[in-house]
Each structure stands twice: as C-alpha cells, then as structure tokens.
Amino acid sequence: MKASASKKPGTANGGNSKQGNNARAQKVKAIGGESTGNPAEAKKLFNDGKKYFMGKGNVQQNLETAFQYMAAAYHWRGRCYQGMGDFQRALYDFTLAIKLDNQQQAKPQDQAEHYNFAGQCHQELGQLDEALKHYEIAVKRDPTNGNYYYNRALVKAKLEKLEEAIDDYNRAIENLSDQNYIYQARFNKGICLRRLGKLEQSIDDLKKAVEMRNDKASAHNNLGLSYFEKEDFEEALNEFSKAISIEPHSFHYNNRGLAFYHIGKLEEAKKDYDDAIQRNPDDPFFYFNRGNVFLNQGDYDNAHHDYDIAIKNASNNPKFWHSKGLAFEGKSQEEIKKNGNSDHVLFLQEKSIEMYKSALALSENFISSRFHLGLMYHRTNQFHKSLKCFSNVLQKLPEDKTVYIARGLVYQDMGNHQFAVNDFNQAIKLDNNFSEAYYRRGVSKLKSRRFHEAIEDFKTSLELDTNQENPGVYDGQGCCYHALKDYDQAISFFNIAIEKDPSNISFLMNRAQCYYDLNMFTESINDLNMALKVNENDPQVLYKLGLSYYAFNKYKKCIKTLKKALINKPFLTYEADIYYHIGLAYCNLEKFEKSIYPYSRCIEMIPSDIRYIHERAKAYQMIEDHEKAVEDFSMVIKKNPKNAHAHFRRAFSFKALKKYSEAADDFEKAKELDPLNPKMVVNYKKLKGITCIVLCKPGEEKIFN
C-alpha cells in the first residue's frame, strides 16, 4: 500500500494484507540564496574584473581586485545556469569561483556560499557524497549559517544517516531566521524521526510544523502518516481529511483510505480509493489497496480485477502476486465451506500456489508468501513440500509460535504425532499462555491414545481461552471420554461444542459416532442429517450416514447414501469400506448379483483383506456361480486354514459341482475346526435340494485364529 507509514508487519500464519505504503513524495530543495542569478550583475562584475585584470598600476592589487570580481561573476553566472536547470555548467562556474576565492583568500563566508551552491548542484546531479563534502566545508567556513545545516541534513537523510540529519535540522532551526525555512526544517525532521520509528517525537515536530503553516496539505498528510504508523488511526483520519480539504490530491485520498481500512470502515476506504483512482488512474498501489478492501469483504472477483490492473502496471511487485494468492486461497476456503472439496476447489488451490510462487520468484525472502505456500501445500496434501516451507520460515522467524503450530498440524495430519507434539511444545515454550497450542497438543495426544493427558491439555486451553472462542476444546474432551467409554460425559461435552457452533460438521459427526456406538441409530442419523444441511455433499458425512442406515437395517437408504458419498470423492481410506457396505446391503436385500461389483472393488483396493473375498464367495454361491465361489472360498482358506465357515460353505459349492468327495472333506473339516457349533453337524442324506446353510448375516463372519 502506498504510504511511508505501514501497519507493523504481521506474523507468518497470516501474511497480513493490511499494510501501509509510501506517502506522497514531496520535492525538497536546498536553500540558501535565490535559485536564479542576476544576469546583468554577472556581466557587469565580469567586465569589471577584466578591466582590473588588464589595468595599469599596482599589479598585485589589480589581480586581487580582478579575482574578486571574477569569482563573483562566476558565482552569479552559476546561479543563472542553476536557475535554468543546467546544473553541470553551474557546477563548473561555482568550482571556478571556489578556486579564484581560494587564491585570494577571500572571506570565509564568501567561500562558504560557493561551496553551498556547488553542493546543491552535486545534489541535483545525484552526486550525494560530493554534495555532502561541499556542505561540510560550507558549514566549516560559516558555522552560523542555518541554510548550510539544512542542506547537509537533506543529503544525510538521503544517505540514510538519519540521526545525523536530525542533528543538522536542529542546528538549522537554531540558526535560521526565515520562518518558512524553519517550518521546512521541522517538517523534514519529523519525517526523519518517523523513519527511525521515533513516532512521538515525529508527531511533536510535525505538530509544530502544522502550527507554523496550517495551510500546508503536506504537513497535515505527514502528521497523519506518523499517527498512522503509531496505529492512532482516528487522529490519522483527522489529519488526512485536513490535507484533502486543502489539496484534494490522489495520495491524500489513498492515505485516508488506508486509515479507514485499518479501523474496519471498508466502504469508506473503498470510496477514498475510488477518488484516488479517479484522480490518478495509473497508480498501481491505489488498485492494490482497493483490491485489499474487496479481499476483506470476500468479493474475490473484484479483488482479482484490481490486483490484475496493479500487476499490469507494476508486475515486479511481489505483494501484488501475493494478494492474488490470498484471493484464490480465500475463494477456495469459501467453496469448501459451501460445497466441500471438488475439482474447482483444487483448481483454486493450485492457482493460489502459482501466485505465491510468482511472488517468491520476485523476492525469495517474502516470508508471508512462503508461509501461505506452506498452508496451501498442506491443504492439497503435499505434506513434505509444506514442511519444507514452514521450516524455511522458522529459520528466519525462529520465535514465531504460529509457524510452529502450522508445521505441527502438518505432522498431525501425517500421523506423526510425536513430531507434532514437539512443535506444539515449542509454541508453548514461546508463549506459556497460548491457548491454541495446548488445544492442538491435546488433539495429537488424543490421536496417540493418551486420553488423560489430552483431557488435561484441553482443560488448560479452556482456562486460557477467557472468551471461550474455541468450541473445539469441548469436542476434544468429548472424543477423549468417548474413547474411554464414558458415553454420558462424552455426549455432555459434544452438546456444549455443538451449542457453541451448531454448524460444525466435525462436532456433529463425533456426537453421531457416539450415538452409533450406543446403538442409538435414530439420534446418530439425526446428527448426520443436520451436518448435511451445512454441506449436502460432504462425502465423509455421507459415509457415516450410510453406515448408520446400515446398522438401522435401512439398506436401500444405505446404498443410496453410500453411492452419493463415492460420487463426492471421500477419503481414500474410506472407499473400500464404502464398497463393502454397499455389497453387504445388497446381500441383506437378497440382491446378491448386485453385490459382486462392490465386493470386487474392495478386493482391488485391499487384496489382503479376506473379509471381502469371503463375502464375494458367498454371493457367488447364492447366484449359483459355484466355480467362482469355490475359487474365492479356497483363497480365504489359503489365507486362513482354520476358517470353519469357509470350509462349510465351500462344501455346498463342491456338492453343486458334483464333487462329492471334496464336499464331504470340507464338511468334516468344518466340524473339526468348530466342534461346538451344532450347525456344522450335517446329515448327508438330508442335504439333497439344499443349496447352502447360512451361518450368519452378511458381514458378521466369525474370526478364526
């Protein structure tokens, strides 16, 4: 943003877009004499000098008089060239004047004046070191002339020697008599003090400057900037408004817009940026600042429009690319909240990553972009890249607790809870009262099954969260008590969490799971349907709801819900179980043929899980595809030779294939493996016409070890 004032940069979890920008630059000129010469006077002096130089009589006296006139002539002609903007010729003349006066040992004050004007020419030509040398000599020759201190201060300020510049402005104020020059010295001193971060002193000097020249828009504007950097935005507004009333310049509107922005008056800020753009449509920072207003209002399309114009006008500014990244990131989060993850969300996240990379290509030390790039890599499951980003940020900001939290969350999602806890411990070490760090550590301890330790962390987090702004603390305690099978306590905490955040899908899912484990399927289904009102396409909620319908024997609803979950791309770890329960539901509806495909998909995903093979074997048997049934039962038996049920059911398929010997062997083996099960004892004479004997419901096969 375009003001020399800026809000202090935020830490790396946020990459703070509320920054100030450079103030309207004011052209500051050296002082000390009129800026234009007197051509007639210069000509007369030059001719007089020639007359004495060529005159008769005392040669030494004639030469001294000639040099005196000639030095003055060169001086005045130099002033003429200076007034015309021809600083190189002017410098030549002032240099000759210096040489001539040195030869005749002229008065120190005269010499000082030549050095002063030569210094001005060097300054205008950008030769600051030479300018400084000349001003040093001018001050030495005439230490009571305030102009020279002032001019030296200007150069020192440009050379970033701000403390020395301030000292010179003080000497200038002591020695100047012209009130306009004293005003200018106070004005510039106030700016130097602001640049050093000495805001109270800066405000004091700029206030005095305003008292001297209340009609100067630049004085009010710069006083406003010092208030702005002090984060006294109301006073800054007042001063920027006075500047606008005197001179309605685009920069003044821009600066007032920044002040409005920082106190949250976004519409007023946008109006000021509109006025700034109307007055100067070519300044990229005005569009950038207005884009930040749109970004904070969630109007991402208009934010992109303004950022694009800013980039078109100044493509080498990393802040512009970074802010486009924030706009893509914000839009992706908005889409996730509305509709869950989707291809469009992934596109937005990838665009965000692209923008942050562009910012870093322009400035590899742009920490905010590196931090947000880490966040986006995390959200797109590029965990190792995310860790690299956060570790890079921590090398530069080793005491930023929010970055430790961000990296810890990546470890948490990777299931590396020891590393996660280490990062959360570091955040707590940096700030022992950091409520979020205790909460995050509690979550990792919960997932590590350290339930009692987790409960203590959640309690500590709650004690430190005086405003009780994080209902996740209650949800975490609910999950701990749920795991400890203290269901009443668990539901009590889940209730508090949901009361504080009724639309939180995770809280509703956790309470639903608790009800599910208590066989309270109606309550479980109610919670999951409430979650779907928040996001009707959330695949994880649909998965859990499908399981609840299955447990509640609502098989048709189960199948419909689980198929919808698959369409919306659930976690990969859920997919096999989703297909498995679709298959089971079809079998419970006695639609065995329809169960074959979902069982086959399960086996493709996890070929080592014999449950899926066993259930498909039974389904093949029920549709009388006995060869495939025997093949699947044999695979189950190979993986688990003690599986009596597989032997028993395979026997019926062997019988159907008229392999009576193999069938008899299987019946006997099943009885041997499960001798206490009366169903295993069969009367061979009564087996005719019996396709199979069902030992259990689909999905309830006994585990044989």
Automatic annotation (TrEMBL):
Signal peptide from the UniProt entry: none
Biased composition (Polar residues): 14-24
Span list, region Disordered: 1-40
Coiled coil: 152-216
PROSITE patterns for this protein: TPR, TPR_REGION
Alphabetized UniProt keyword annotations: Coiled coil, Repeat, TPR repeat
Segments annotated as TPR repeats: 71-104, 112-145, 217-250, 284-317, 367-400, 401-434, 435-468, 471-504, 539-572, 576-609, 610-643, 644-677
Superkingdom as given in the UniProt entry: Eukaryota
A Pfam match: TPR_11
PANTHER family: TETRATRICOPEPTIDE REPEAT PROTEIN 6, UDP-N-ACETYLGLUCOSAMINE--PEPTIDE N-ACETYLGLUCOSAMINYLTRANSFERASE SPINDLY-RELATED
Protein name: Peptidase c14 caspase catalytic subunit
